[in-house]
Amino acid sequence: MTTSETGLFELPQTYRDLQAQARELAVSMRDIAARADESSSTDPDVRKRLAASGLTELAVPAQWGGRFEKVDSLAVTIVREQLAAESAHLDSMFVMQGIGSYGLAVAGSDAVRDRWLPKVATLDAMAALGLTEPHVGSDLKALTTTVVADGDELVLNGHKSFITNGGDADFYSILAKEGDGYSLVLVPADTPGVSTHRPHQIIAPHVLSDVVLENVRVPADHRIGEAGKGFGLVLATLATFRVSVAGASVGMAEAALRLALEHANNRQQFGTSLSRLGSVPEHLASCWTDIEAARSLTYRAAAASARDPRANLHLSSMAKVSATEMCGRVVDRCVQIMGRFGITRDTAIERLYRESRPMRIYEGSTEVIFDSLAKQLIKNGI
């Protein structure tokens, strides 16, 4: 990447190629996106097409079949921007391969990594991360799931809730209390004592499940990293993937603007197109401006995260908040522009309206992120 005025603010060719590949895949999903996005379980056609694209190779380091030496936040972010514009189901399936396996790639035992990570890269195995519990959300240190060493095995007991890919995943990276610390443990889904059920669904249907662990025994080498050091791996995962939520939000907002613009240009009211009537032109221009501002911060944060995720978590957090809040405003404004056509069930804009809302909550709600940013700012300054 050059430092010329033109090159400085452009994506390098490698990322532009990825962007084009992701866009091609996303557009190819239009015939099944509406069905998949209303599903509570993995859509087999989406999985087949995503696997064939090879994009899940971005979820793991090159050593286990990935495209980059290490997981690249910018690559994941720009791919999510394209996928989320067409299908939330596709977007979630893609990113969870990385979120569910990142701790394993960073700190897992060689034998366990060699077994699972090549399958993650090809989507032959689906990954999941088990953090939240029925009464535990942002305050993860209050979790009650436990892991105890018993000879050459680890024994887990607990109840995880609202787990993405739950019920369909082939393995779970489970955060559990171990002694005075918290450990991350890989639990294959077919391990005796693991059960799943689906008591909840959200306004934008998602592959979600509760995961119950009853005297689940796994080999000791399934502990990921050191005993009691699991929080560091969770933070590393967030540092790498949080900014990609911003990318998905930018993609969704832009998709909504395209729909609103098409409607406004083609809708005739009071002798002129809606796009030239009253406050509608201002709304359209405001949406466009907000999207481009969020994209700029998102790309900057993603590039910084690709260099050093932990050192640039503050930028990833800012981008996540900025883009998800922007997405909510823009999609709502686009619904307003489209009037009754914007609130009609089973339309693309209605789906985007529902899908945009959870973005401000998962992987750190706006309020929790602002609290963390404020603490960092007060302590260290700018």
From TrEMBL:
<keyword id="KW-0285">Flavoprotein</keyword>
<dbReference type="InterPro" id="IPR009100">
    <property type="entry name" value="AcylCoA_DH/oxidase_NM_dom_sf"/>
</dbReference>
<dbReference type="Pfam" id="PF02770">
    <property type="entry name" value="Acyl-CoA_dh_M"/>
</dbReference>
<feature type="domain" description="Acyl-CoA oxidase/dehydrogenase middle">
    <location>
        <begin position="128"/>
        <end position="201"/>
    </location>
</feature>
<dbReference type="GO" id="GO:0033539">
    <property type="term" value="P:fatty acid beta-oxidation using acyl-CoA dehydrogenase"/>
</dbReference>
<dbReference type="GO" id="GO:0005737">
    <property type="term" value="C:cytoplasm"/>
</dbReference>
<dbReference type="InterPro" id="IPR046373">
    <property type="entry name" value="Acyl-CoA_Oxase/DH_mid-dom_sf"/>
</dbReference>
<feature type="domain" description="Acyl-CoA dehydrogenase/oxidase C-terminal">
    <location>
        <begin position="228"/>
        <end position="377"/>
    </location>
</feature>
<dbReference type="InterPro" id="IPR037069">
    <property type="entry name" value="AcylCoA_DH/ox_N_sf"/>
</dbReference>
<keyword id="KW-0274">FAD</keyword>
<dbReference type="InterPro" id="IPR036250">
    <property type="entry name" value="AcylCo_DH-like_C"/>
</dbReference>
<dbReference type="Pfam" id="PF02771">
    <property type="entry name" value="Acyl-CoA_dh_N"/>
</dbReference>
<dbReference type="InterPro" id="IPR013786">
    <property type="entry name" value="AcylCoA_DH/ox_N"/>
</dbReference>
<comment type="similarity">
    <text>Belongs to the acyl-CoA dehydrogenase family.</text>
</comment>
<dbReference type="Pfam" id="PF00441">
    <property type="entry name" value="Acyl-CoA_dh_1"/>
</dbReference>
<dbReference type="GO" id="GO:0050660">
    <property type="term" value="F:flavin adenine dinucleotide binding"/>
</dbReference>
<protein>
    <submittedName>
        <fullName>Acyl-CoA dehydrogenase</fullName>
    </submittedName>
</protein>
<dbReference type="InterPro" id="IPR006091">
    <property type="entry name" value="Acyl-CoA_Oxase/DH_mid-dom"/>
</dbReference>
<keyword id="KW-0560">Oxidoreductase</keyword>
<dbReference type="GO" id="GO:0003995">
    <property type="term" value="F:acyl-CoA dehydrogenase activity"/>
</dbReference>
<dbReference type="InterPro" id="IPR009075">
    <property type="entry name" value="AcylCo_DH/oxidase_C"/>
</dbReference>
<feature type="domain" description="Acyl-CoA dehydrogenase/oxidase N-terminal">
    <location>
        <begin position="15"/>
        <end position="122"/>
    </location>
</feature>
<dbReference type="InterPro" id="IPR050741">
    <property type="entry name" value="Acyl-CoA_dehydrogenase"/>
</dbReference>
